[in-house]
């Protein structure tokens, strides 16, 4: 079988976003079973054995802001034409899309569509008129089979579109290798004795909630051992956010980096905190829990689902006061910050082997049932 994975966002080995990581992980897994090509609307810089990579480069620097401008100027029609041209010159048995933007844009080829958004994110991601077109395209899309990565994602998609997707849990391909913490802390100038609280998310402070952690820690600074806050996911589009955080929290030791190698970020860290206000799934939470790091998650639906059957995950009501309270309450766990492998029941739920088996089965079924 010859499969095409389509990503809205730029793809590279350093990608931190959940959608991009899913595409990368699935490409790795599928490459052992079938022919795989990855197509990105932005740039693509992947080095995966037996995986072909192509870029459409719809804009010079594809990010949330440039995408909005592109779509406001007739970009959706342009993307449809670019896809049509690419598919005219490249033949595939099945196409696996990873953004609702692609709904009903691909004809005469079997399509799987994995949902990577929720209602709030969807309306924040696209201009109003484009969001309306996409919803209409989903309604009229008789070609694609829609797949949600969790029960909470399934319910959210059903509310948004009135369509019932299948559910296949994202499996996590564990490629994180924890490195020597002492040398890394020297490199990034973090004291050896500091507790490192890490937020391994894009530096999108409105959605990801980094300030919730900073305000909470600032309020209880005198009651905690010495600490440093590590904020990952800072690329060029978030440099103003970086300046803002350094300006408004001068009393805290904060390291803000892009981390071209996410293994460095996790190796530096003792405790992971994800104070997201909204998530479609929560890939960073799965990644952190798989490593075995102590994990604090905001009490939102996707995270509640992830926290099930894993005692090393602590939920908190998503505001500064409640996070400060729970950090003090769990101070003993923070001080020891043991790395504990998640229980087998939890690991099985997010098994990469099970995810691969389910998607391959679905590919075969969709291709067999497809009517030209």
Layout of strands and helices, then pairs:
Layout: E1 2-7, E2 11-12, H1 18-30, E3 35-40, E4 44-45, E5 51-55, H2 64-72, H3 75-89, E6 94-97, E7 111-114, H4 119-125, H5 128-140, E8 144-148, H6 151-161, E9 166-167, H7 181-188, E10 195-199, H8 205-208, H9 210-219, E11 227-231, H10 239-248, E12 254-256, H11 262-268, E13 271-274, H12 283-291, E14 294-298, H13 301-307, E15 313-316, H14 320-329, H15 331-336, H16 344-349, H17 352-369
Helix pairs in contact: 9-14
Structural class, judged by helices and strands? Answer: alpha/beta
The unreliable regions are none
- Strand fraction equals 15-25%
Let me know the largest β-sheet. 7 strands, parallel
The radius of gyration is 21 Å
Strand segment tally:
15
- Mean pLDDT comes to 93
Number of helices, where a helix is a run of at least 4 consecutive DSSP H or I residues: 17
Helix content: 40-55%
How does the overall form come out from the CA principal axes?
Answer: globular
Strand order of the largest sheet: 5-3-1-6-7-8-9
N→C terminal distance? 17 Å
Folded structure, characterized:
It is a single chain. By secondary structure, the protein is of the alpha/beta class. The protein is built from 17 helices and 15 strands. Strands 5-3-1-6-7-8-9 form a 7-stranded parallel β-sheet. A 6-stranded parallel β-sheet has the order 12-11-10-13-14-15, sandwiched between helices. It has a two-stranded parallel sheet with strand order 2-4. β8 (about 145-150), α6 and β9 form a beta-alpha-beta unit.
